[in-house]
Specification:
The protein folds into two domains: about 270 residues, TIM Barrel; about 80 residues, no CATH class. Helix content is about 45%, strand content about 15%. The structure holds flavin mononucleotide. Flavin mononucleotide binds next to strand 4.
C-alpha cells in the first residue's frame, strides 16, 4: 500500500481501536488497474463454484463489487462443446465487469476456452490454480499446478497469447504448508504474463481450516510488480481495511462473507455502514434474485440452486429454523415466492406435509 493510503487507514482508527467508517477518503473506494482494465474499486466478488452464476454476479455488482469472477469453468468442457459448460461462459448484458475463471491442465485447451470466454464478453480471464478438490487435482488442474510452476506458467503463456484481455491467476499458499513456495510460483506466473495474482493464503491440504495467513499475501506484494489481490476471511469493512493496510494488496476478494449478505460488498467498497435492510427488505432481495435465477436456470434447477441461499440470508434474521427448513421442501417456484412473502409479513408457514 502506498504511504499516502497507510496514513488514510491510520486516520480511520480512533484511539479506542474502533474503525470509523465515514464515506469520502476510503482506500477501498479507489480505482485500480489490472493490465489495461480499470476496476472502479478494490472489492472483488470471489469465484465460487456452484454459486457465482450471472444473477449472483449481477447482485454483487449492484451492491458495490467493482469486479466479479465467475464460478470455475472446465476448459475441457468448452473444448468438447458441453452445453452446460458453454452456458457458464454466458454473461448477462447488465453485468459490468466480470472475469471468467477457467480450470484445466492442457495449455491448448485453456487457450481455446480463454478465446471463447473473451468472445462472450469477459473482462478478464482468471486461471484457477487453487482448487483443492481431488477430482480436479487428479487431472493436474487447480492446486496441483502449484507443484509444477513451469507447467503452470506454460498455461498462463498460452492464455496470454490467445486473448487481448488481461489474464490473472488465483493461487493458494501451496499444496501443503511444508511444500509451499508461493513467491516462487507467483514469480513464474507473472513472468509468463499474468497481470494480477489473487492469493488465498491457506494450503490446499488445509481446505478451509485455520485462518488465512495474509503475511504470505504481503510477501507476494513485496516480490511482484503486478497487483496482488487478497482472498480469505475478509468478512467486514474493518478486516478489508486492515488486510489492505497490512499487506499492501491492491484489492480484497470477498467469498463466503457475501453469501446471504450482498450488502457487504457495498459496505466494504464505501466504508459506510452496511445498508442491509430489515427482514422485509432482505426477503425482497431474495425474491428479486430468485426470479433472475429461475429465468436463467429454469424452475427445477433454479429452485434447487436457491435452497442453499435461504439459511445464508435468514440466519440472524430471527426466522425460526423450522420455517427455513420448510422452504427447502418446496418444488414449485410460485409457492417459494409466496412463502417468502408470508415470511416477510410474519405469517407462520404451513407444515412441510401440506407443501407436497
Ligand atoms: C463454496 C465455495 C466455492 C468455491 N469455488 C471456487 C472456485 O470456483 N474458484 C476459486 O478460485 N475459488 C473458489 N473458492 C474459494 C474462494 O474463491 C475464496 O478464495 C475462499 O473461499 C476464501 O475466501 P473467503 O474466506 O472470503 O470465502 C470457493 C470457495 C467456496 C466456499
Amino acid at each position: 500500500m502506498k504511504k499516502r493510503m497507510r496514513g488514510a487507514v491510520a486516520d480511520r482508527i480512533s484511539d479506542d481501536g474502533q474503525l470509523e467508517l465515514p464515506g469520502g477518503d476510503w482506500p477501498l473506494d479507489r480505482p485500480f488497474r489490472i493490465g489495461d482494465l480499470e476496476v472502479p474499486n478494490r472489492v472483488i466478488q470471489a469465484p465460487l463454484a456452484g454459486i457465482a452464476n450471472a444473477p449472483f454476479r449481477l447482485q454483487a455488482q449492484r451492491h458495490g463489487a467493482g469486479l466479479s469472477v465467475s464460478e470455475m469453468v472446465a476448459s475441457m468442457g468448452v473444448h468438447h462443446g458441453n452445453a452446460r459448460t458453454v452456458e457458464m461462459l454466458r454473461l448477462d448484458p447488465a453485468e459490468q465487469l466480470t472475469g471468467i475463471q477457467l480450470f484445466g491442465a492442457v495449455p491448448e485447451a485453456m487457450a481455446e476456452a480463454a478465446r471463447a470466454a473473451e468472445a462472450h464478453g469477459a473482462a478478464l480471464i482468471d486461471i484457477n490454480m487453487g482448487c483443492p478438490v481431488s477430482k480436479i487435482c487428479k487431472t493436474g488442474a487447480g492446486a496441483a499446478l502449484l507443484a509444477d510452476p513451469v507447467h503452470a506458467a506454460a498455461i498462463v503463456a498460452a492464455c496470454v497469447d490467445a486473448v487481448s484481455i488481461p489474464v490473472t491467476v488465483k493461487i493458494r499458499r501451496g499444496l501443503t504448508p511444508t511444500e509451499a513456495r508461493p513467491v516462487e510460483v507467483a514469480k513464474h506466473l507473472a513472468g509468463a504474463g499474468a497481470q494480477a495474482i489473487t492469493i488465498h493464503p491457506r494450503a490446499a491440504a488445509d481446505e478451509y481450516r485455520g485462518t488465512a495467513d495474509h503475511r504470505i499475501t504481503a510477501e507476494l506484494v513485496a516480490a511482484l510488480d503486478i497487483p496482488v489481490i487478497a482472498s480469505g476471511d475478509i468478512t467486514t469493512p474493518r478486516m478489508a481495511y486492515e488486510v489492505l493496510a497490512a499487506t499492501g494488496a491492491a484489492a480484497v476478494m470477498v467469498g463466503r462473507g457475501g453469501l446471504g449478505d450482498p450488502w457487504l460488498f457495498g459496505a466494504i467498497a464505501s466504508g459506510a455502514p452496511s445498508a442491509r435492510p430489515g427482514l422485509p427488505g432482505v426477503i425482497a432481495e431474495i425474491q428479486d434474485f430468485a426470479v433472475q435465477v429461475v429465468a436463467l436456470m429454469g424452475e427445477r434447477r433454479g429452485v434447487h440452486y436457491l435452497r442453499k441461499f435461504y439459511p445464508w440470508y435468514l440466519v440472524g434474521e430471527h426466522v425460526p429454523q423450522s420455517e427455513v427448513s420448510n422452504l427447502l421442501l418446496i418444488e414449485d417456484f410460485d409457492q417459494v415466492l409466496e412463502r417468502l412473502s408470508a415470511l416477510a409479513e410474519h405469517v407462520p408457514l404451513a407444515t412441510s406435509s401440506s407443501l407436497n
